[in-house]
């Protein structure tokens, strides 16, 4: 009887291991989630400003990006690159939420480039 129980437990463990092998993300997927790749876009300042206003960024960063609940972004380009800003907007950071499900990657890239020019 014990042999049947042990073989059943072993079988379940092997099946679970196989399922996990095919469902857990791979190294490439984890790396992409950690540092998303910024797409190439032509910066459009008017579109970037519209996204910032439409998405409510000014509620935390202020209408002049002077900072409020969130940090001052008026000279963020002297501290962070466009790629770093893109990663923060995409993934979120601290109290800032992720916008990857709310905006297209191109919109985020445009805003990141616009902010990176603020020095």
UniProtKB/TrEMBL annotation:
Note one Pfam family from the annotation: Cytochrome_CBB3
**Mind telling me which SUPFAM superfamilies this protein's record contains?**
Cytochrome c
Reported modifications of this chain: Binds 1 heme c group covalently per subunit.
Gene3D superfamilies in the cross-refs: Cytochrome c-like domain
Q: Which residues cross the membrane?
A: 6-25
UniProt organism field: Paenibacillus rhizosphaerae
Q: Which named protein is this? A: Cytochrome C
| A Gene Ontology term for the protein's cellular component | membrane
| Binding residues for heme c | 57, 60-61, 96
PANTHER family according to UniProt: CYTOCHROME C-553-LIKE, MENAQUINOL-CYTOCHROME C REDUCTASE CYTOCHROME B_C SUBUNIT
Q: Which InterPro entries match?
A: Cyt_c-like_dom (IPR009056), Cyt_c-like_dom_sf (IPR036909), Cyt_c_BACSU-c550-type (IPR012218), Cyt_C_IC (IPR008168), Cytochrome_c550/c551-like (IPR051811)
Q: Does the keyword Cytoplasm apply?
A: no
One GO molecular function term of this record is:
heme binding
Keywords carried by this UniProt record: Electron transport, Heme, Iron, Membrane, Metal-binding, Transmembrane, Transmembrane helix, Transport
Q: Give all residue intervals belonging to the Cytochrome c domain.
A: 43-119
């Amino acid at each position: 009887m014990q042999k049947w129980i042990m073989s059943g437990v072993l079988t379940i463990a092997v099946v679970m291991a196989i399922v996990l092998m095919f469902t857990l993300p791979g190294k490439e997927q984890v790396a992409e989630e950690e540092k998303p790749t910024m797409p190439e876009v032509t910066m459009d300042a008017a579109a970037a400003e519209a996204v910032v206003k439409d998405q409510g960024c000014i509620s935390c960063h202020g209408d002049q990006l002077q900072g409020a609940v969130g940090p001052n972004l008026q000279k963020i380009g002297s501290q962070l690159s466009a790629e770093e800003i893109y990663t923060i907007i995409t993934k979120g950071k601290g109290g800032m939420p992720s916008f990857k499900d709310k905006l297209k990657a191109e919109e985020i890239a445009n805003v990141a480039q616009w902010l990176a020019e603020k020095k």
